[in-house]
Description:
This protein is an alpha+beta fold. It contains 15 helices and 14 strands. The two termini are 45 Å apart. It folds into 2 domains: 10-241, 2-Layer Sandwich (Cytochrome Bc1 Complex, Chain A, domain 1); 269-453, 2-Layer Sandwich (Cytochrome Bc1 Complex, Chain A, domain 1). Strands 2-3-4-8-5-7-6 form a 7-stranded mixed β-sheet, sandwiched between helices. A 5-stranded mixed β-sheet has the order 9-14-10-12-11, sandwiched between helices. Strands 1-13 form a two-stranded antiparallel sheet.
Amino acid sequence: MNSAVDLPLGLADLSFAASGEALVRRTVLPSGVRILSEQVPGARSATLGYWVAVGSRDESDAVPASGERAAVPASFGSTHFLEHLLFKGTNTRTALDIAISFDSVGGEHNAMTAKEYTCYYAKVQDRDLPMAVEVIADMLASSLLDPTEFENERGVILEELSMAEDDPGDVANERFFSAVLGAHPLGRPIGGSPQTIRDAKRDAVWEHYRANYRPQDLVVTAAGAVDHDLLVSGVERALRGAGWDLDTAASPVARRATRPAEIVRGAAVVAVERPIEQANLLIGVPGIVATDERRVTMSVLNSILGGGMSSRLFQEIRERRGLAYSVYSFSGSYSDAGVFGLYAGCAPAKATQVAELMLGELDRLADGGVTADELRRAVGQLSGGAALALEDSDTRMSRLGRAEISMGEFADLDESLRRLHLVTVDDVKALAGDLAARPFSVSAVGSVTDDMFAALAR
């Protein structure tokens, strides 16, 4: 590949070679199901994912307006609730049957609910891929959402939320998203709240399931030891066997709009007092959307500022001053919004000082830019990390899913490296200046108060 390959929704078949002699193929069935594979020479295992482009942001207690993705009211946390329930049995398999299918072959299977999609995935030996295709298709297409299992899983999810509430890092992160993104749906917790889970009704979750788990919503991706033609026929056979109608023609659902949303900060400072030894501190601003042309520059900026042991945050706050063990920067990008943040875990008495130092490093990056040596190191770090990550079929499978659902294009390793090497010191400085000028939010958990950070908010 010499450039990224577009993935038009209306193109039925596509095939191209990717870096490392991998073969990428894509088939769009008449029903709207999209199936993508990346065959990797020499692989003996495969990772499979069934994706639905519905996440926590698509939930609403009210009937959505025309054109919104969710077709029915679904209380906050319902998408994550549904993810749990699809493991609890189908018309032909019990929850134990599903577990045994993978355990008996040494495979791995799980799922993840994100803010803009849900994915059910498995990693198995090549000979067991047909089994994984069939079992996950059955889970996704013919789940019973049994009322008794619904109530049992309600308790499980409440325990999961309690576990997260006991983790100060998780608490700080949830408050951070809410503070930075305000009322935007991306600012809500993926799992909902204990109250919304207690209030969730089986019928509402069932309607959410029926409205959003349809052929035109489904993307199937597989990477590793995979034969595309066998994958396509296996998916078709499994979905038909699970009761889906694949004969009615439908176009794949449109990808999300990528115009940046107007973000109104939810809070300048959110401090949660907890009697713990450390303060978990997050400072951040609205970031860039997933399709922003500066996304590669963002990766470089993040690497220089807080992406490794040679980064500015690590060197200044940990190495030179010994104020924190863990300190880093991060970014998250979605269809119409994003976040950029700085994190440190430190003694509560040092929290204000650490916050000032973190902001100072971002300001210094914005004002003074970066050196050619820093840029070279960052490009090297990101290049090596990208190459090593692709040794794992999990990463390749996820790359296919994100390319199809979010980006609308596939960029292989060679193209990604080409884009990295185009980033300049001026690009990094300009993006740092843009971020530094945005309104900051502070989220802190520990023996802290709002007053400790009031002077930092701007």
